Amino acid sequence: MAANGTPMLDRVSIRALLAREQVRFLLVGGVNTLVGYGFYALFLLFAGYLVSLYLSYAVAISIAFVLHRRFTFRVTGNVVVDFARFVGVYVISLAVNTAVLPLLVEVAGLHPLAAQAIALVITTLISYVGHKWFSFRRSASPPQPSSSASHPQVESQRP
């Protein structure tokens, strides 16, 4: 415990963890997955499992885009282009989910909530790879020449 009674957290360790893109992706993805899964469960109360899937994706995509763009991948640039690419990755993910979910529900006989929990493992992997290498990919910037030797250039790094 710190002198003020709060638990001591190693801020350096937390910052080091948050500097890792994979950790940020897991945090944002975890929150977004819980929100999307919650909406899926809610929509299941009044709609079929595929309609619920599509509705929950519509909600989750909006939340995920903002969080991944600003927190996970920390990019700037053309929002419209990024969003179009982001949705493209989710279309692939949704197509896989649309194929897997009925197999698990109709063929394997799983409850739609259990089936979707399993499908989320597959779609999360697709999502990470797609967003990292397509949605938010930025080309490496060439180093800028410094104007004088007395002012060394500080390179910005993308964690």
How are the SSEs placed, and which strands pair?
Layout: H1 11-18, H2 21-44, H3 49-72, H4 79-107, H5 112-135
Organism: Conyzicola nivalis
Region (Disordered): 140-159
Protein name: Flippase GtrA
Task: Provide a short characterization of the protein structure.
Keywords: Membrane, Transmembrane, Transmembrane helix. This protein is mainly alpha-helical and 159 residues long.
Structure description:
The protein has one domain (19-135). Helix 2 packs antiparallel against helix 3 (49-72). The relative contact order is 0.12. The radius of gyration is 20 Å and the shape is globular. The chain contains five helices and no strands. The two termini are 31 Å apart. The longest helix is centred in the middle third of the chain and has 29 residues, at 79-107. The chain has 159 residues and is mostly helical. It is found in: Membrane. Residues 24-136 form the GtrA/DPMS transmembrane domain. It comes from Conyzicola nivalis. This is Flippase GtrA. The chain crosses the membrane at residues 25-43, 49-67, 79-104, 110-129.
